[in-house]
Amino acid sequence: MRQVAISLLAIAFAGCTTPPREELSPPHPVTNPTSPLMLKLPGYEGDPGGIAFMQLPRLPAEHAVISDVRDRGGTWVHQHAYLAHFAGRYWAMWSDGPGVPKDGVSEEQHFNIVPGHDQAGTRVSYATSEDGVAWSEPGDLSGPPRIEGYGWIARGFWVRDGEMLALASHFHAPGYPGLGLSLEAFRWDDVADRWVAHGQVMDDAMNNFPPKQLPDGQWMMTRRDHQRQVTVMVGGVESFDRWVVHPMASYDGEGRPEEPYWYTLPDGRNIVALIRDNGGSKRLLRTFSIDNGSSWSRLIRTNFPDARSKFFVLRTSRGYYALVSNSNPARRDPLTIAISQDGLVFDQLFFLAGGRHVDYPHIIEHDGHLLIAFSGAKQTMETLKISLADIDEAQSDPG
Questions:
Q1: Which of these, 360, 350, 391, lies nearest to 95 by C-alpha position?
Q2: pTM surpassing 0.85?
Q3: Alpha-carbon distance 294 to 299, whole Å?
Q4: Cα dist. 29→220, 266, 289, 345, 376 in Å?
Q5: Which pLDDT belongs to residue 20?
Q6: Which of 75, 89, 141, 217 could bridge to 124 as Cys pair (CB 3.0-4.6 Å)?
């Protein structure tokens, strides 16, 4: 398997051109925070046009479809996938609502269209599974929006003090920017076997992924306000609605940053944040914090290609980091997984799903497997279940 992975990588990078070289010295949050190096693959000199994305090595996976609305002709949308494992079950949630009708679209074309989303009337749906492969029928998590002309956007699960909360942003449609934005929580009531409203987490807020704990024990999640400005929320210990906000990046500044995500580096102290660039670079942006999110270094455009789409990074129990994204800058096809030992430079890249529009992934690890959720053309919610042992075997030798 390891020799096969190496030969497939050679095919994938055949014919790669060599653009002018950037200064690709090893990045470091303290000594070299401005290095653009993030992707280091055989034959890759910074030009993603030379990568044969469909020929990347592939990982064995069990595939499942949680929910499918292709029979509605693009007039209904599934997006914003999130996963959790709690109380012996896998949980999935997603935004579920009306889209923009697409006239004259055949059933064969459904996976290749991108219906409009974040419309009024959008709700949050959920499903559960014992194994991450066979899923229950979708259920209603949020209920209808509280105000006519508003909608809900799924924002992820948060297990806090042994209790599972589901987060959702209430927004004035269409799209989240604008007055009326708020981040709300729902609590799973095991006795009633349903979700119940738990209260407002923060006004004028839409997180990207649910909170994780900082090295100092506080919770932190990234936030965008109704003007798209990017900040972090730190707190959540005394109460689920007690937070301090720190600026991270200006939307109209460098790179028009969207959908930020952060994680702790192997030293257990320093933090890196990666951000989608809605500007023209089609590369991921990176910034560092060495003080638990209170301040952030200048945004740097990395050499990691991106289709301007949502992504997710998970540090596995094996110690390495897995980044799932649309690394082909030309389109949201395929979905790939990149591997890094240090959380800074990714040196392996694998194919997950493609040949169609696939995007907005989330990952969790449980019982020796990664479970990856994603959307297919905003018409399906799907999962891939991949053994960590298969990822270990498929990784090519370093260097």
A1: 360
A2: yes
A3: 15
A4: 19, 12, 7, 12, 36
A5: 42
A6: 141
